[in-house]
Specification:
Helices cover 39% and strands 24% of the residues. With 124 residues, it is an alpha/beta fold.
């Protein structure tokens, strides 16, 4: 399941400092590539959820409202959408610019899982 979040949900350092990995899709409501990618992102979320992975999937509108667009641009340096960031213990551990099909998004998440293991010695 993909959770909609706002800038109020994001901590200054990232996502919550828990033992879950958090994947965030930064998107625009009228962005064509974002609309095309969203079903693949939702399927990717379901794929990992069915396997019991400790990963939470989120999405945040990077264009609207204007104060949120400014926050996303300044704090997260999002210059284009779709854009993905994976967080673990509030740190960005993997980033991906651009959309993609489910296979590409799964690969991105697997790379993030590998980075968590290499950096923290944790299994997701």
């Amino acid at each position: 399941m993909v959770n909609d979040i706002t800038m109020e949900n994001m901590q200054p350092g990232g996502m919550p400092e828990d033992d879950d990995m958090h994947v965030v899709m930064f998107y625009g409501t009228t962005c064509g590539p974002c609309k095309a990618t969203m079903p693949h992102y939702e399927a990717t979320s379901e794929f990992f959820e069915e396997r019991g992975a400790r990963i939470k999937f989120h999405r945040i509108d990077a264009w609207d409202p204007p104060e949120q667009a400014e926050y996303v641009r300044e704090v997260w340096e999002i210059k284009g959408v779709p854009n993905f960031k994976a967080f673990f213990r509030s740190q960005v551990i993997e980033e991906k610019q651009g959309g993609g099909r489910e296979e590409n998004l799964r690969k991105f998440v697997h790379e993030a899982i590998d980075n968590v293991y290499k950096t923290f010695g944790e299994k997701i």
